[in-house]
Specification:
CATH superfamily: MetI-like
Pfam families: BPD_transp_1 (PF00528)
CATH architecture: Orthogonal Bundle
Family: Belongs to the binding-protein-dependent transport system permease family. HisMQ subfamily.
Number of domains: 1
Number of helices: 9
Oligomer: single chain
Main location: membrane
Organism: Nitratireductor arenosus
GO cellular component, one term: ATP-binding cassette (ABC) transporter complex
Number of strands: 0
Shape: flat
Order of helices and strands: HHHHHHHHH
CATH class: Mainly Alpha
Radius of gyration: 22 Å
Distance between the termini: 50 Å
Amino acid sequence: MLETLLQLSLFDLLAPSPPGWGGTLLRGLASSVQIALGAFGIGLVIGTAGAWGKLYGGPVVRDLLEVYTTVVRAVPELVLILLLYYAGTDLVNRALEAFGYPPVDISGLVAGIAVLGVVQGAYSTEVIRGAIRAIPQGQIEAARAYGMAPGLLLRRITLPAMLPYAIPGLANLWLIATKDTALLAVVGFNELTLATRQAAGATKAYFTFFVAAGVLYLLLTLFSNVIIARVERWARRGMPHVGGAG
């Protein structure tokens, strides 16, 4: 029985894919990358503001941010996506109606980016907060002694100095974002996982298409690792090399 299953799986893998489905998978991959880029960018903005608020904000701001990061990190991401995707769009339209504006039809792309951006923002907040705390405090104190404004201090001192410490954590968040796009398949957004399910369901070549999707995710990860390594080398220029001999 096991030998028969292995033979069938190998046959499915080697069999040529029906025409047209390759383009469907690539379009799904493009949608996944688009969502991941948007969500990661929103997460960086939220994370930077959240980390700054946690470190330098008032008690109310710090408490609200603590609730935000704790809830998002505690609740499973699939539950958050379902909650924010359906309840969030409904709340937006209710708010618009309350102010006298007609409801809007929020596209799946915008909703998907916003939902994952909120999730990414909670994790980015903690990554960036930790990176800022790793900065030698003498640099920040010297800037304050010169009378540097908080906004200028953030742009000229804090963000450049914390970048080498933040990149490893942010790189992991980017890879998580690329995989979290697959969760949007449950709400019907046409990204790579949903496209793969549609192709496999139409052709019954489940093994072939899901292996193909896995390979596409792997290629995206390998390409991302190359870019991340270059960014990390750029951010750490002039700093002592940390790593094994070689």
